[in-house]
């Protein structure tokens, strides 16, 4: 995850505007995250995954429908079955060597050992895993959006600080202009402050340009056009410092273990005997009566039983393979939890540090403000030069910028902490 200041210092490319509705109210981080989720292309996969799982289950349900197979055959053979012995008074017809047959075979599954049921459960669980993988991807996007949003907030605070500095510079310039008119100060003193005001305005232009680029980038993610006048609200962050982790990755690991466990049930079902009803009807020569050369209708029906015993050769290995894969997923989960807890510990220390720095920043600003106020009086009374006054103004500006930086870093650290937890 990018740091606020580090991200802000990077050059931001210009982005194309997209035709969307204009924000007309204050923009919150929660609203942005909601829009990004709805607009992100990967979200469409979730509906597609549901559709795919439904089609797979529907296809598996077809296993219980009668299976129809139509065959046709015409053949000529070099010899046929004959009875060489003659029976007095009985004429034995010789079979024709050209034979024809058209058959329709119908099989109705009545028991498959639960294999179809386990396959349907497998398809549903696989869809759950793929759906959760999309959730993990969307959660990663959440971190990127947080960085952009906080960088905009940081820029806004810097622009506000520029306004405060310009106010102090203008007060000083007004005083020096009065002294110049009274002949007790040189024009160069006023020019020093005017030049600093111009530099301050340049800095404002740079910040506003960067802010516009970041807003346009955020607009691409949200699918909404945001104007430069959009107001971004600081998010209120709960001070819950618990270590309970509810990241989508945890659910993904658990779903993967469940899916692998389902494979064991499927392995068992595949090694159970299966039974079905069958019916074969046909028309051909010879039919079931081999003692006639006439084309005739015929049929055969009954119950069929089959048991594929070769599945037992690989059953133990397949079950062990499932166990190994479950252990791999468990190891990944443990590694993820270890790394996540380490990140939480680091963020806790960062939050503690920033709270102390902010407390110190406020004390420094209070002291610097008193020095600047005294410098104003000295400048007004002509006992301080414009350069010396500018030094004090810049010193207070730097202390306020440090506070802004630390406050935004604290906000970012708190948001990162909650994001790491999965909140």
Summarize the structure in short.
The chain is 63% helix and 11% strand. It is of the alpha+beta class and 423 residues long. The protein is rod-shaped.
Task: Pick out its properties.
disordered N terminus, 423 residues, four-stranded antiparallel beta sheet, 11% strand, alpha+beta, single chain, Outer membrane efflux proteins (OEP)
CATH architecture assignment: Up-down Bundle
Strand order of the largest sheet: 1-2-3-4
Biggest sheet record: 4 strands, antiparallel
The CATH homologous superfamily corresponds to: Outer membrane efflux proteins (OEP)
Seen as an oligomer or otherwise, the chain set is single chain
Proportion of residues in extended strands: 5-15%
Helix/strand order, N-terminal first: HHHEEHHHEEHH
What is the rounded Rg? 41 Å
Low-confidence stretches: 1-24
SS element count, helices: 8
Instruction: Report mean pLDDT, rounded to a whole number.
Output: 85
Give the tally of β-strands.
4
Q: Span from first to last CA?
A: 16 Å
Number of domains: 1
What is the fold-level CATH name, i.e. the topology? Outer membrane efflux proteins (OEP)
Helix content: 55-70%
Shape label: rod-shaped
Q: Strand pairing plus helix content: what structural class? A: alpha+beta
Q: What's the CATH C level? A: Mainly Alpha
